[in-house]
Structure to design on (134 residues):
């Protein structure tokens, strides 16, 4: 859990500006040193996990009934046309999240745009799987 909290404090302070995100859940697994934190705004839910020594971030809309989680790579593909490199959370991904969060929140707040965005995220996931697995 400490790794997640330190990362958030160092690179993601923008999440905690007034009216943005709040902690809604957290879990730890002491035996494997794994942890999970879930943050939520009015339109976006973030899940940050420390798993096998790596930090990972996924997101989903808070409204609209979608229970799917998406990683930042497909979002980068939708917004910038490339999915970036490794999905392991680092300073660069934190910067991308900070730069993209307002647009993601707007896309998830509007039902019509949310549906299109989810379709685009699925498309980016398929492209990534094709690159990885042929």
């Amino acid at each position: 859990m400490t790794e997640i909290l330190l990362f958030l404090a160092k690179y993601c302070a923008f999440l905690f500006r007034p009216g943005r995100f709040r902690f809604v859940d957290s879990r730890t697994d002491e035996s494997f040193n794994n942890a999970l934190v879930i943050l939520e705004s009015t339109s976006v839910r973030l899940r940050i996990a420390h798993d096998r020594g790596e930090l990972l971030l996924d997101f989903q809309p808070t409204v609209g009934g979608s229970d799917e989680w998406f990683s930042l790579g497909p979002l980068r593909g939708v917004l910038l046309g490339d999915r970036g490199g490794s999905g392991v959370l680092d300073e660069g991904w934190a910067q991308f999240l900070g730069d993209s969060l307002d647009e993601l929140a707007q896309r998830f707040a509007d039902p019509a745009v949310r549906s299109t965005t989810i379709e685009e995220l699925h498309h980016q996931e398929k492209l990534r799987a094709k690159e990885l697995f042929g």
In short: The chain has a mean pLDDT of 91.
